[in-house]
Design brief:
globular, three-stranded antiparallel sheet, alpha+beta, 2 helices, 7 strands
Amino acid sequence: MVAENLGEATFRLSGFSVQRTGGGTASFVRKPALHRRFMGRFFEKTGRDYERFNYFGEWHSHPCYPARPSSVDVQQMQKIIEEPGQSAHFAVLLVVRLGLRGAVEASAFAFRRGHAPVEVQIICR
């Protein structure tokens, strides 16, 4: 996911990449090369204004499970944010699913180096 920094710890989701292979109903294997291409196009489109527009985090669906991060999700996000050379100060994980009657269910958690994940508020407008 990529987002615009609106200030005061507020971000607007600007876009996201979609990986159509590498997963099933119970697992997902991230393919970094696909996402790097997406990021390159995004930065070109936003004039490389890294202070305002930047990487925001990861997203995926849980079609058969609650829209909450699994223990594997938490481990993978911690690995991403702790990765040597990672310049992001934080990353957000958004987990979504279609619930009963087609309602969208979602949760979002922020990850920082050396800290436990924190659930963050989602506001849809």
